[in-house]
């Protein structure tokens, strides 16, 4: 996998037409990780690419490692919404949006787990989490999905001035993705150290 002319190039990458995004993305220094909170990656990508949908993302990564690219990396996507990070608002203006196909929070009924849209999730795909709300259940990410996402992050850091990796919940209190099932420590280890950059944007 590589990036050529702001587009991922690999046999496992499919381009999805998304003509609604046209504003240039200048000096993006942040990657924002999301979950789709929906069905499979293809349907999520088509939904985000729909001109009637007031949201989009640069890429959607399937549970089997397939990648759908909607927006070139030199164009802003509408993934952050009303957001702020380290004193800057409008995070869309300086970030990439990576969506991972994942149903998010699940509901338990006896010994079965269901998405908010009614699909049953097998027990081996369920992550049990304990926090302020007590025990909650979440859709687990797949190892292959995480490896592919990490590779995309590495490439973005190689070709663009990326120095931050955050979740959607880090930039707005409205959202909770990628959720407690996302293995941040392991994922950051897979991505490796992002370059530190000076105020001039030069890597150090």
UniProtKB/TrEMBL annotation:
Keywords: Cell wall biogenesis/degradation, Hydrolase. Residues 18-179 form the N-acetylmuramoyl-L-alanine amidase domain. It catalyses: Hydrolyzes the link between N-acetylmuramoyl residues and L-amino acid residues in certain cell-wall glycopeptides. It holds the Pfam family Amidase_2. The keyword Cell wall biogenesis/degradation applies. One of its GO terms (molecular function) is N-acetylmuramoyl-L-alanine amidase activity. GO terms for biological process: cell wall organization; peptidoglycan catabolic process; peptidoglycan turnover. Its EC number is 3.5.1.28. CDD domains: PGRP. This is N-acetylmuramoyl-L-alanine amidase. It comes from Candidatus Odoribacter faecigallinarum.
């Amino acid at each position: 996998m590589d990036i050529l002319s702001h587009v991922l190039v690999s046999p496992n990458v499919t381009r999805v037409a998304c003509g609604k995004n046209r504003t240039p993305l200048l000096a993006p220094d942040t990657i924002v990780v999301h979950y789709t909170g929906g069905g499979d990656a293809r349907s999520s990508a088509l939904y985000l690419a729909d001109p009637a949908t007031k949201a989009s993302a640069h890429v959607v990564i399937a549970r089997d490692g397939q990648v759908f690219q909607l927006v070139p990396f030199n164009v802003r996507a509408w993934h952050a919404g009303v957001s702020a990070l380290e004193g800057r608002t409008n995070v869309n203006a300086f970030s990439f949006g990576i969506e991972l196909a994942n149903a998010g929070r699940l509901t338990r009924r006896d010994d079965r787990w269901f998405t908010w849209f009614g699909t049953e999730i097998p027990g081996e795909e369920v992550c049990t989490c304990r926090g302020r709300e007590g025990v909650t259940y979440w859709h687990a990410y797949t190892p292959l999905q995480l490896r592919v996402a990490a590779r995309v992050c590495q490439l973005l850091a190689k070709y663009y001035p990326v120095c931050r990796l955050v979740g959607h919940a880090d930039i707005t209190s409205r959202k909770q993705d990628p959720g407690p099932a996302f293995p941040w420590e392991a994922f950051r280890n897979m991505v490796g150290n992002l370059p530190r950059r000076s105020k001039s944007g030069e890597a150090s």
